[in-house]
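Hi F.,

I've been meaning to write this up properly since the lab meeting, where we talked about keeping a consistent format for the predictions we share between groups. The idea is simple: the sequence comes first, exactly as it goes in, then the structure tokens exactly as they come out, then a line or two of notes. No screenshots and no reformatting. I'm using this chain as the first example so we have something concrete to point to.
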Amino acid sequence: MANIVQKYLLQQLGRLKKSTSGAALVYFAILVPLIAGFAGLGFDATMWFMQKRQMQTAADSSALAAAYALSKDQTDQEIILAATKDAEANNFTTGNGNSLSLTTPPVTGGYAGQSNYVMVKLNHPAELVFTKMLDIKDIEIRTTATAGILKVGEHCILALDETMDKALEFSGTSDVDINCGVASNSNSTESIYLNGTATLSANPSAQAYGDIYQGTNATLNTPNPIQPLSQRAIDPYGPEGRDLEVPTLPSICINTGSLQIKLGDPDPLPGRYCGDMTFNANADTTLAPGVYIIDGGDLTIRGGATLSGTGVTFVLTAADPDDIGTVDIGGGATIDLTAPNHGDYAGIVFFQDPRALYTEGDNKFLGGPAMNIKGAVYFPGQELRFSGGSSTSSGCLQLLGRKVTFTGNSKLYNDQSDCAFLGIEKISRTLVTMVE
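Output, unedited:
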């Protein structure tokens, strides 16, 4: 528009130059400031456009900083301070007519009323260099940005170590097919590691805080793009989640020393067992609902043993971290265990004391296709080695370990309604992102 006006005025100026009338001088005197004003309008508009772009960058960054503070459950004052500091880092300083306002939840826009979102508005009085000639006043440049916290993922396998190479490992000839995501919190360049002729089919994706290594002959199938260099997933049973604690009661041991269970022996009852617990090859045991505490011993289920139970949780602990035991489920064992759906250990089938030392052993779940576990298998201090899984379409299994290794073929189908019924916590990634 300014260019059209300028062209018109220049045409009129040309006519005035040819005029012999004395009035031409009067018209010329009137037109000169107008010409200068409209020419200046184009200059000023260009400056305003550049300022608006700079302000939009500051608003976007400020909204992201505020949303990140919100994701950390910081106070309203801390959220505003984070937004203000980030705006200042992008050359927007409040005062002298500049203002920053923040609302959470937003009151307008597509995310109005949603508590996980923040809206930042920046206002800046426009600089009037040439347009003062046109008597234009009080122009203000305004920008708006909205950012929020998204929960993405729905993982069922999570490696918790934050620095380890191959924290989540698929190697050899392992073939793992699961209808859920996998994640690793390690910052390693081999945070998730696939090598040999290993195949991993995960849905929706594979996510790592570090990088994902895929060997030449390994296969990684996901319906969505893989997500290396992502944020870490929150441990749903650790301090930032449910913060599981080892039970202190009952404190009296039902059995002291090695308990060997064979065919025909009475089924163990819930309680504290001080020493090893072994289900031998011919054992056929149905456990009553409750918590089975293995204090200072290992839990072993030999190949050929049958172990079932609903509402069952195994806890491995000890007074001395060196004595915290491991789990060893041999190939060929028939396992059908379901977690309780209420109480402190809702959704948990196996829980190892987080104080367990990594160097003291690993935990083997090698039962094969006859191993059906519905619930969380949680070993935050040690390695979890897994090979097995039911081919049925029901159930819900989570595997969480400091390191998780797949050593053979597994086919797992998680039914989210079963997960919700059992009270299994979701493993998801918190993503702070711009939305508007």
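Notes:
The radius of gyration is 33 Å.
The mean pLDDT is 84.

If this format works for you, I'll send the rest the same way.

G.
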